[in-house]
Amino acid sequence: xxxxxxxxxxxxxxxxxxxxxxxxxxxxxxxxxxxxxxxxxxxxxxxxxxxxxxxxxxxxxxxxxxxxxxxxxxxxxxxxxxxxxxxxxxxxxxxxxxxxxxxxxxxxxxxxxxxxxxxxxxxxxxxxxxxxxxxxxxxxxxxxxxxxxxxxxxxxxxxxxxxxxxxxxxxxxxxxxxxxxxxxxxxxxxxxxxxxxxxxxxxxxxxxxxxxxxxxxxxxxxxxxxxxxxxxxxxxxxxxxxxxxxxxxxxxxxxxxxxxxxxxxxxxxxxxxxxxxxxxxxxxxxxxxxxxxxxxxxxxxxxxxxxxxxxxxxxxxxxxxxxxxxxxxxx
Length: 331
Fold this sequence. Notes:
Elements: E1 3-9, H1 13-24, E2 31-38, H2 45-50, E3 57-62, H3 67-77, E4 82-86, E5 90-91, H4 96-106, E6 111-113, E7 116-117, H5 124-134, H6 136-139, E8 158-162, H7 163-169, H8 178-188, E9 193-195, E10 201-203, H9 209-229, H10 236-257, H11 264-281, H12 284-314, H13 321-329
Parallel strand pairs: 1-2, 1-4, 2-3, 6-9, 7-10
Antiparallel strand pairs: 4-8, 5-10, 6-8
């Protein structure tokens, strides 16, 4: 059982070095690595060359067109039975491909994904952001948690599918939340999709709160794009950050205009975040940082969701309902 590991890269030299270092230490080594440089101004060919003796690695440089197109270029040059996708800011545990192979031999899947975790070397801010993105208290466990409000959907920081899937469904589309779009198309084509918990990665995500805010804001907006493409895809769990944002505003206004104790529900919620993060990470500092990280995750996503809902669905403006429907039809 062999794999083609495909990684799109854009100005991530040092992170690529860490990723390739972790891949060179895999226990199971029947895989090739295809690094697709998407028009970086600070390319990493020399770093790829450093690992040529340790990895079956291929480096491709192309003009900047977006990460989905870069992945598709990698797919076109791949040879593996399974196509595996990582983000360039991931570090892969040594047992990853051994665990993945064992799981697929026990229970074959056409498309699979795994969860992510924070490595000990990550900064406290990165660990707090990881908590905000993976905790049941903030995302409902939809990224691979053991308790969850929605069926697992593979994400491109840690996912893969068989070559047979690609031959029928095609590649990634250049859009936000392209991984959810791809997983939906795979599922709708009748292929099996599942979570392999043991095949986890360490995912750096954003290194500061400003970049994290931009990321989750885009996630919120793209959920409406997915709703236009797949009308049945929007679930109650996806609306919760928007409802939380509206509720937060209401509590703050009431606390300022009626009585101070209206703020207590918000205080209680963020105290739960602090306690849960402190216990799970064994760090009071990370617990404190998890409070603004959770606020950014929920309020940023909620604002993007509301803005896109008003603009694209109620006002039918922007890159539009018609454009999204044409994309769904493949026109």
